Fold this sequence. Notes:
Blueprint: H1 2-5, E1 11-16, H2 21-30, E2 35-40, E3 45-46, E4 49-50
Parallel strand pairs: 1-2
Antiparallel strand pairs: 3-4
Amino acid sequence: MIIDDYQGEKLTLIFILKGSLxxxxxxxxxxxxxxxxxxxxxxxxAGYTSSGKID
Length: 55
């Protein structure tokens, strides 16, 4: 488990906006360590098709 592996260490959780909101929210509430939360936004779609490039 994350809590056992990183006991007493400060963790940085990186959250990809929109796609993992609920998972990230639940996960961060279960970890009792000192946390730093970071958010990024990633996009590769223009309309319904992927551009093949990550912005």
